[in-house]
Amino acid sequence: MRPLQRSDYKGGMLDVLRVLTTVGDIDEKAWNERYDWLARRGDEYYILVVCDGEKKVVGTGAVVIERKFIRNLGLVGHIEDIAVAKDQQGKKLGLRIIQALGYIADKVGCYKTILDCSETNEGFYVKCGYKRTGLEMALYRDKN
Known about the structure:
Blueprint: E1 2-3, H1 13-17, H2 28-39, E2 45-51, E3 57-67, H3 70-73, E4 75-84, H4 93-108, E5 110-115, H5 122-127
Parallel strand pairs: 4-5
Antiparallel strand pairs: 1-2, 2-3, 3-4
């Protein structure tokens, strides 16, 4: 497991994310622009990848650090985009990614780490030590 690298575009990072949701048609130039933007915010975005023996990305996840005014200017870690390639599921890669992201959140000083998931995936996150504490709400905007 290691931090995201620019070369992960060619290593299949977007294919792994497609297991999770719609990704879109992102060319290498757009990837590099987003990668550079994220890299400049090195204390806010922590994206990890798991690679197989051929350097192909087979799992990923992120923790985004939110700075708050509450809790004495506290920090909250938001776990995002946990995805494991279909042929690699069941090997505890997701658990290891969640644990590593939790470790990062702890080390940067987050007072809590939160995530949103579908009810289908709730059992997995309970096994990872998370518990249901609320209800997610969303307002999607059409970007045509």
